[in-house]
Design goal:
With about 200 residues, the chain is α+β, with helices and mostly antiparallel strands. It folds into 2 domains: about 5-40 and about 115-180, no CATH class; about 45-115. It has helices spanning about 5-15, 25-40, 130-150, 160-180, and strands spanning about 45-50, 60, 70-75, 90, 95, 105-115, 120, 120-125. About 25% of the residues are buried.
Length: about 200
């Protein structure tokens, strides 16, 4: 699914399908990206990167890992079977290797999660989660319009902003409950300590 298809779905749920539109494409794109960022926190896009180490120095820079949400594992040294995963700590863009031998300047492999993206060419989002993003984007769009319509004359009457707020909050409640079920922080994980 690409961005224009996602905007069409959001417009359909918002009943904003005829011109002049209540929300511009730019506004809906912002709300879609907001929902996509939240989904990425719960269900990041898996990625891995080969990064250089510095000889006799345990710190590895991960500043090149753009849109990083979390770091799952660090493999060092490479090309061993079974793979040797090391304990590590993070501080900003610095990853410190806590276990194993001092690095010798060869590469390490970092397994991490990053933000999903959507544009005119497509999306990194699994197709089964498209409706979830639509639900979140609709909630954010409704709340935005509710805030903008306070103290304004409109054909819907004085309760219009309150009704939009209630509907938007209901959409966001559904969105956040489904995110919680998908969330990486809520899962039971089995972990193993690796011997040095």
């Amino acid at each position: 699914m690409n961005l224009s298809e996602m905007i069409t779905l959001v417009r359909g749920d918002l009943k904003d399908e005829s011109s002049p539109y209540q929300w511009s494409d730019e506004e809906l794109t912002r709300h879609i990206n907001h929902a996509l960022r939240e989904l990425s926190e719960s269900l990041p896009l898996p990625a891995k990167a080969m990064l250089p180490t510095v000889s006799d120095f345990r710190e590895v820079s991960i500043s090149s890992l753009t849109d990083r949400v979390m770091v799952q594992a660090l493999e060092y040294p490479l090309e061993e079977y079974p793979p040797r995963y090391q304990r590590f700590s993070l501080w900003g863009d610095a990853m410190t290797i806590l276990s194993g031998d001092e690095p010798d300047g060869s590469n390490c492999c970092v397994y991490y999660g990053k933000l999903h993206s959507i544009d005119d060419n497509g999306s990194t989002l699994p197709g089964k989660h498209g409706d979830l993003i639509v639900t979140g984007a609709c909630g954010y769009a409704a709340l935005s319009l509710a805030a903008a319509s306070i103290n304004k004359v409109n054909i819907g009457g004085r309760l219009t902003s309150e009704e939009l707020r209630i509907w938007g909050n209901e959409r966001l409640k559904i969105f956040k409950e489904r995110l919680k079920r998908l969330g990486r922080r809520q899962r039971v994980r089995t972990q193993q300590l690796f011997a040095d």
